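Annex B. Sample input.
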Amino acid sequence: MMQSRADAPPPSPRPHTNGAAGSHGPGLNGHATSLGQIAARRLALTLAAEGKLTAAEQAGVMLRDGLGGPPDPEGALTHFEIAAAGGIVSAMLAAGAMLTAGNLVPVDHARAAQWYRTAAEAGDTEGMLAWAEAMRSGRGVPADPKQSEHWLRVAATAGSPEAAERLGVMLATSGGHRTETLELLRAATAAGRPKAAFELGHLLWGDGDSDEIFAALSIAAAAGHPEGTLWLGFCHAQGVGVREHPTTAFLYFEKAALLGVTRAKHQTGKCYEEGLGVGRNITKASGWYNEAARDGNAAAARRYAYLRDIYPVLTARKGEERVARRDYENALRIGPSAKNKAETAQLMLTSRDAVIVARGKEVLSEIARSGKAADLRLVANVALAAKLATEAGTWMRRATALGDAEAARELAAHLDAGRIKPADPGEAARVRRTAEESWRSEPGRGGSRGR
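Annex B, continued. Sample output.
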């Protein structure tokens, strides 16, 4: 499913603006000023000095943003903290934002965290979000995931769509309680939050309402969410909440690929290779597979090697005649699992290059050397598909000897169908008995293990 999530920064309580309409030209330090701003700044500073808290906050804004005179970040922070100490929540958030960002005053996460905590305890949802993030990241306070989750839940209950999104996404990723996760994601999706919309569609995929899945992923894609765009393509490809339309599916796949989604690059390559929703174009397919392979997608690396092997036009330049050998090795390196190696070897065994075919057989032997029944059964089936009946029989028998019930059943079927030659006239009957005994001994089948 789902691509890593970036840390969410604490919210900025107010936008910073420089200059204002009706300015009388550049003032000190190049900042636009007006007579009204100059007078307002002086008045705010005067009233702040007299203990007026709202004036202290306003002075902080003007000093921070350079309104009515040159910027004075230190003075701004001082005035924000005076107002914050007097209980003005927006000033608490402004002070915390300055101390967190570090672009105007030195970073002080501990001090910022205390202002966020004070704002949170005062019931402000933005403060709750910032305080939850501080505890999640351990910036300025000891990391406390449980308390972070608690404050996100409080903020979500108070009606914050961002808190519902963050908590819903977190629970969806960690496998939290499904009912609560869905409630949070639905609330955030209804408010147009794209991350929540993607997670909702992804979480419901396969066992949820198709119309809800399509609607959620449409919201995510419309907001430019990369993975949401990919999965909306799958909706159109598979008819989830909408009529199947390969061309529309391809357009979403390609859009997601251009947004950098590795799986979308692979899917776009597949569309070009197989002519799904777009004209078949092996050159473009190869290019997209290569892009995905560079991102570490093993399946794309296999297809890239395969296309370069069977279509000489892709390697027509001098010196590239045997480049597919290198491409297959790269695919094996990118996906070192037994499954990927076996699937890569399966493609290698179809090559017209004898060296690649020999290497494919060698890869299967390497997998078999693990001695694991599952690996032996895997390579046996690949070998059988490549009409290597002798090797397939050897590996399937070894898996059966290890007590693998599935291998015994498959071997019996292959012997009966003549796909694998019996070692002796009685082998097929013996293997059938072994398979039957293995089946009966499985839990719930009524055999000794199930009693």
